[in-house]
């Protein structure tokens, strides 16, 4: 997935990606951005349709310096982006609640990436097939070889959009609350309530082939 | 938090909230929408700034038929909404990956809500104080009585925005994959890989008062 060998360690800062609020939490580090993207299964994709901001949650995957999404070819949000509407993609991991001694200094620990730009449609069937495979391989490495590939009709019904990682920034908060000096003596617990996405035991399909009962694999 | 007694069970369907893709997954059920909102700590808020779609992840809370967010008064996205820019809020719970026998029928189990509308600024200090309390009570009931309340300067530095739950819709997918009839005999595991947000052991602040060591409470 990575071909960052000849690229700068840092993304360029653009007017739209320059972080003004909480600049100490900002990062343009390429590997950090890649990690935040790859650790997530879904992103939120926003654009403007009929003059109004709109948004969908959807799965994504990354190939080098591009992030990809897919959906129904007739989806109005994907369609607007395909026709040239600007998009904004956001990926967020909530890592914990930061419980301070004052209301004001409560916060969250998180890792997020925001990407701005136009999308490019993957228009040929070979490209769509390859991206079907890449997405499937993100979900479960090796699975692609065991399932039925998309047929011509399914490829036609699916739109794939890629976005360059160019106007991109990350924001990260980690660690303890930061209270005002005079508040540290207040009689209240303070610290972090950590949280994370956890995979449960795979649930067999009700119509599973008996030979495959219990063979589901949790994502890594 | 709920005052739905005299309201219809269902939200009205508006042009912008009419779900065209996957209409069987759509819902306008008021209690379902409230539950999806209340179960989440963060939402994604999109709007248009300088002609470009943009987005932030942020915490939210609900009071009856309004959802609230807050942030730095000088935040450019909140500022644009405060000045009348349309917004779109999305709340998403990823509940699992749906592993089908064909690439095309892979999916996700999820619960999401999308809200469209303009935001209204909470402009008076009493309202800001009350919303500080309501947000804190969502994080940990009873905590408000133990922490330092926001002072005048902190209230001034914080913007609170409320959005009516009017143009709102939910989308939910649950349960097994749905494969094409002829694919059920394929030799591959199929089912759901469930996931959820899990709270870990609270982490004491490094500067914690010794009397409060180990006293952190996981959210419910």
UniProtKB/TrEMBL annotation, chains A, B:
<dbReference type="InterPro" id="IPR012349">
    <property type="entry name" value="Split_barrel_FMN-bd"/>
</dbReference>
<dbReference type="InterPro" id="IPR024747">
    <property type="entry name" value="Pyridox_Oxase-rel"/>
</dbReference>
<protein>
    <submittedName>
        <fullName>Flavin-nucleotide-binding protein</fullName>
    </submittedName>
</protein>
<dbReference type="Pfam" id="PF12900">
    <property type="entry name" value="Pyridox_ox_2"/>
</dbReference>
